[in-house]
Batch of 2 targets.
Target 1
Amino acid sequence: MATIEDVAKLAGLSRTTVSRVINDQPYVTEEKRQRIIQAMNDLGYVPNSSARRLRSQRTETIAVLLPRLTNPFFGNLIEAMEEKASEWGYQVIVCQTHDSKKKEMDYLQLLKTKQVDGIIMASLVNDWEVVEPYLESGPIVFCNEYMDESCIPMVHMDHKQAAYEATVHLLEQGCKQIAYVTGGPESHLSKERRKGFTSALSEYNLPFIEDMTIDWAMDVSDGQKVFHMISNEFTQVDGIFTGSDEVAAGLIYEAASSDWRIPDDLAVVGFDNQMLSLLMVPSVTTIEQPVKQMADKTVEVLIQQLLHPGTLPAQKYVFPHQLLIRNSTKRKKLSIQ
Amino acid sequence: MATIEDVAKLAGLSRTTVSRVINDQPYVTEEKRQRIIQAMNDLGYVPNSSARRLRSQRTETIAVLLPRLTNPFFGNLIEAMEEKASEWGYQVIVCQTHDSKKKEMDYLQLLKTKQVDGIIMASLVNDWEVVEPYLESGPIVFCNEYMDESCIPMVHMDHKQAAYEATVHLLEQGCKQIAYVTGGPESHLSKERRKGFTSALSEYNLPFIEDMTIDWAMDVSDGQKVFHMISNEFTQVDGIFTGSDEVAAGLIYEAASSDWRIPDDLAVVGFDNQMLSLLMVPSVTTIEQPVKQMADKTVEVLIQQLLHPGTLPAQKYVFPHQLLIRNSTKRKKLSIQ
DNA sequence: TTGTACGCGTTATCAA
DNA sequence: TTGATAACGCGTACAA
């Protein structure tokens, strides 16, 4: 492994001069610059990143915390983040918390130990008071998840409003008994969604029925289970608000081999507008999130803070969503009425 | 930022002793150990990772190169890899090459610059001769992709055999004109698949027709385009071998709004057994890959090399696949015959 | 325009 | 059982 010292010796110059060439600094004669470049090539020299990090106190690496990559929403998110970060010369470390408080804390340690310059939290299961101290070690930005009491930049959409709109849509289709199906931990985000759901209900003078709430549904197979629960125990349910397209898909898949008709017996809305939701038969009404824009903005905001600390207010960046009405809720009965 | 020096001073001991405590080394009195632990807590001391890296020449980080995370196969792959790596205390850097030779090389540089200890290549677009020199800087393991001329560990399944079986299945269903649809660069892997495809054809005395080959289909929307090409230009086609479930899904989706019946007019096989392939109507016949096992083995092999260099032969680990026959190829006509 | 010398924070060696 | 000291490889005041 050739070091800067080796290059200097071979070129008959000092480490300093070599360093200047490496970092494109002025005050080096063209002739010597060439001699050094030659020497670097001859030796196959590459600057040692660990030494640079120690010296500069910067790693040019960020960590992205998220629950799990299996969820395509996060897959898309990190894909866009990696691309954006790479444009700025930053590496991205993937950190799957699996909604575990401990794992989330472990990954936050990356900031303290200086393995990363900053952190994006798209997973948030710990309370703010335990996260906050890490801010001393570097910037943190929330993406998707959010928390009012914190004072850091947040990039997300209005989940409350989105849930509200989806629920109103179900009600407009004539649903009288809507089940609320969600998954993952009780995060601030999921609370917001629930608020939107209930506020739509109360607008239609309907109560929120705790019995018709399921809080463990995260993927397709959970969706299948949900359908069986409903068709066995809650036969009066005629609409479902779902926190994910996967759950909605599992539900619809299972309904196909029953005598329940979707949307007429059961209207279903998903969330995220995954490819899946378009391809299902019937296609799934869902909420479109501007994933790429949110990812780009998040990385931008974080890197901005790294490059120019303290110049950015702890702003909220709220992105627009869109309710995509598809066949899983379009009731024919109604259009005839 | 407290350093080891600060801790030493506060505890009234030397850096060396503190270092011993940090690294759980013997030869420290219990009393002094406690004093040091106390001091560390008081100062909120955390060892600086950059300094450790420089000193130890190890980063405890690996890079995973892959084409893109949008493809759920790679999403699942890296999810499993991150989990496994995390068990060993290793960080994972995501590197999306987008099938670009340049990006692939750029990411390989991480090894040279000592930003990572080792690399997993699940993307492989460069020739072996340009990849090989990087082996000097650390171990590389192939996953999914492979290359006979190389001499490093490879973890994958038998794509040739898988493609062969899928094609034979189409032929058994009575297909006479099978289109070959693939995407991405001409990798060794895709060549293997094609070999399997052609060898099945020739076994049934059918020629490989270059005209009925499409090499740019990678996702759902490409699948839709493919269907239109076929229904407009190649109406004689009655079966399709597809390199991905996404393409198969797009094709099937588009066929639904035409007068083509699947599988009777057109039988379709996918690849990877994504959730999607099960949920489509009709469900998609596909090849199941043992993603998690492959991911685990790959990480295991790489870390093995990091911990005990030179103890492992450059073996191939070939995992079994499985042809899952579903409705997109099960012809009713035939079962009556 | 170039070089000397120090420090970034750790750990390993060796002597006490 | 403990500590002084020398690396690890690089960047940068400061001096020349």
Target 2
Amino acid sequence: MTVTIYDVAREANVSMATVSRVVNGNQNVKPATRKKVLKVIEELGYRPNAVARGLASKKTTTVGVIIPDISNSMYAELARGIEDIATMYRYNIILSNSDQNENKELQLLETMLGKQVDGIVFMSDVISSELLYEMKRSPTPIVLAGSIDDSNAIASVNIDYYGAAYEAMKKLIDNGHTRIAFVSGLFSSKVNKDKLKAYRQALEDASIEVDEQLVIECDNSYDEAIEAVNTLAPHKPTAYFVSNDEMSIGVIHGVEANGQKIPEDVEIISYENSKLARMARPMLTSVALPLYDIGAVSMRLLTKYMNGEEIEENQVILPYRIEERASTKNA
Amino acid sequence: MTVTIYDVAREANVSMATVSRVVNGNQNVKPATRKKVLKVIEELGYRPNAVARGLASKKTTTVGVIIPDISNSMYAELARGIEDIATMYRYNIILSNSDQNENKELQLLETMLGKQVDGIVFMSDVISSELLYEMKRSPTPIVLAGSIDDSNAIASVNIDYYGAAYEAMKKLIDNGHTRIAFVSGLFSSKVNKDKLKAYRQALEDASIEVDEQLVIECDNSYDEAIEAVNTLAPHKPTAYFVSNDEMSIGVIHGVEANGQKIPEDVEIISYENSKLARMARPMLTSVALPLYDIGAVSMRLLTKYMNGEEIEENQVILPYRIEERASTKNA
DNA sequence: TTGAAAGCGCTAACAG
DNA sequence: CTGTTAGCGCTTTCAA
């Protein structure tokens, strides 16, 4: 039925070994032989079976990607970075959504290892100790993309979330605000914890008392951000530091619904800088997260591990910047 | 090094066949034996090798997904639908971006077939005849998700793009508009061609002359949509039919920048109904595309083909609806 | 430069 | 209920 390497060998009057050599670009084949084999391959429509190849060579040229939710634009952007570099290095990607559910993450890890992936890129806001344990004993290299493991046991690619948040807060403080609200995503996420820490520290460093009522935890959605604004209203914030662009748009709408002007009455700094930031009115000043790059660099790092290269530093920190737009008063 | 089925068999004093049976949940194993084997599996940390299994069984339990761009929210939504159903049926997904580049699509198809995927979900605005030819001779089932092949040779899941566009236009016409602009994505896309056809037909059916100057083709981006509004301004449209939510937001901003009010001076109907539609101000009336469902149903259909089930109808059409919001004047 | 042969780890008859 | 035995299609020594 399907044509195998054996069929090609017979048809071309050579051994399977020789066919294998030409298929794999091995130079030890006489040009004439190569040509003959290639011709037969063409005629028979031979297509190498990657599964058999994987079994024999113990390499599948596919990597696993465990991601919270591909329909979330942040992760989609990360995934694109991963995939582009994977393609560049001739790897395919097995992509699975975990919904940040630990059991699912554990099970996905298991499935992927079973499928003999050559490496894994893992994303999650929280890395449980059990997960960490499994990752450490993984026979296959793993890198965390935009995800933090405090023990630094697993390679990872991130930005300085704390530093970025601190700088954003600093800007708001420098603009004279003392009532700055923080509309955050879930604090179960290490990244949000870092932002909170920066929020507090920046305030303290400026001798501004931290008012816990100005801190609100939401589920990252537009709707909850609007609600957050209403909850915060009695506490009269004059500036908002917001965890992502979607929520920032919610904040804008909430604030405007209450009759306040941005940035005249209220300033906002977001944290993501997706294309939404430019589609908002006013356009959002935002910490620019290099999501695509985090994905790309993670995958690149993974290729090094897969090649058995020695890595100098397994924790890579990418640069961020703050994109100033109309939601803040700028110099 | 790694523990194989053979190690387990030896340790448990049974044959590999028996181990294979318990691993695969075959009922023909005495409970005591099963228990013994399970225990050894546990002790040894045995993990079945899916590659070997795939080679022996000729099934990989993985399906290929060829998608234009996962970082585009429309496709990400589709992908999520696909993945969820795949997971439900225990399939994994190999995901690749094609950027709608025909050569890449062709090559991806080849790669996935080489990897022995059990099925493929394919997405693309344009299905070239060469692609169609390759798909037809694919040894593995393929279904098109949200993509059209006029010949109906390949199974597909879509909505009635034409009908949806016609209905949207009808609504605008019923609201009294005679100068309706169409801000479209690329006409190389079959879906956009259908919308254009509906645009014209709806106008004709209402005895309104079609003014080609009111039709603008853009690249689906926010920025080009704003530009489109400016290009259209001299032709004084009083309503806009727009190809997707992102562009609709561009239209809103373009229109407002010109001092017009929505929906008082200008009405807008979008075509997508992503969460952006609710995040826009005014909120967008929009044709609701069931992207997630298209993905899910495609995958479900694929499972049927992979199981060799007989399919009554290979062209499935899902329902759409129009979500009325503030960008149009409603009854 | 080429071929022979031994696996890779598992499934799937088939036999008992 | 369990074991034996062929492969699945390819890579990879090892010889020649």
